[in-house]
UniProtKB/TrEMBL annotation:
It comes from Paenibacillus macquariensis. GO terms for molecular function: methyltransferase activity. This is AdoMet-dependent methyltransferase. The keyword Transferase applies. Keywords: Methyltransferase, Transferase. Residues 43-174 form the Methyltransferase domain.
Length: 205
């Protein structure tokens, strides 16, 4: 698993490396981002929190349309690049694996979104973190997570076999058949959509 220093090093080439990649782990990457972007209602009163904002690939398109963006990341270089794209956004240097920081605790968001970041959190902690995020939503708010994920454990295991040495053993990918019932048991309304061979969207209300 990359450290913040590792992501600092990767930051400059991050988007280009994804653009030139094929298959796992970024199969369908831009389709997933577009799906999340299309969910967000565009108006100046819309507030969006991006968990693991990186270089801003997910939220830049909606920022350009006037949405208010807050972003979290543990990589100073990633935040620097995101801030250059979105100078009116608010950014917080924090490791979200420890939960949401106090700086955003007083805010209620219309949308909390995340792309290719939640897989850094171990599965039991994912549930707790998502429940915490729910507490920072407005009454009509929505959480939308795009990430490397699979509908079934069988799909996960098959991708692992096919990926061979490219498989990252330090990540914790979502399996819908497992995580959806756990979130529903917390009283959340959950929908999962598989968008590519290894990419899916989790929508939580």
């Amino acid at each position: 698993m990359l450290t913040s220093e590792g992501f600092d090093t990767w930051a400059g080439d991050y988007e280009e490396s994804i653009l030139n990649s094929t298959g796992y782990p970024f199969d369908g990457y831009y389709d997933l981002l577009a799906y999340v972007q299309n969910i967000v209602e565009i108006n100046p009163d819309t507030y969006v929190l991006d968990i693991g904002i990186g270089t801003g690939a997910l939220t830049y398109e909606i920022y350009k349309k006037g949405v208010q963006i807050h972003g979290l990341d543990f990589s100073p270089k990633m935040i620097e690049l995101a801030k250059a794209k979105m100078p009116n956004g608010e950014f917080f240097l924090v490791d979200f694996q420890h939960g949401l920081p106090s700086e955003v605790g007083c805010h209620k968001y219309d949308y909390i979104v995340s792309s290719y970041a939640i897989h850094h959190i171990e599965d039991p902690l994912k549930i707790n973190f998502i429940v915490q995020m729910k507490g920072n939503l407005k009454d009509s708010g929505v959480i939308v997570i795009a990430d490397v994920s699979f509908r079934t454990q069988e799909d996960h295991d098959q991708c692992k076999i096919v990926s061979g040495d490219h498989w990252d053993h330090d990540e914790y990918y979502m399996v819908a058949d497992s995580i959806v019932p756990q979130l529903e048991a917390q009283g959340l309304e959950v929908e999962y959509i598989q968008k590519s061979s290894c990419g899916g969207i989790l929508i939580i209300k």
